[in-house]
Here is the input.
Amino acid sequence: VLKVHGSLNLNVPFQLSGGILGILLAFRTSQSYQRFWQGREVWAKVINQVRSFARCLCYLDSPVSMGRDAYMRWLKTFPVCLMQHVQGERDPSALIYLLPHERRIIDSGNSMPLACTLAL
Here is the structure.
């Protein structure tokens, strides 16, 4: 217990702990922002890869191009499946790009992104 000129001063411990808590809070905020930014970078890479693959499919002029529409539907669905998987959700009605029989493929699997990848 700290005494100042014979009287009890209780403000000093609170002032000392306030500075320490401020440093700890700043550190935790910085850490969470770094995690957010890292997640944002990974998500941007996923979207860019999907777009690049879709652009490559647009240039196909072979018999394989007949399945191009199906590939495009699955490509548009993959980011939605991945987002729901990361967020711990499972809402097949959000998969608006797929045909009903394709949605059943997603429903039957344990992992929506994996089922989407296997369909591709």
User: Anything to note?
Assistant: The chain has a mean pLDDT of 83. Residues 1-59 form one domain. The radius of gyration is 26 Å. The helical segments are 11-58, 68-87, 100-108, 112-119.
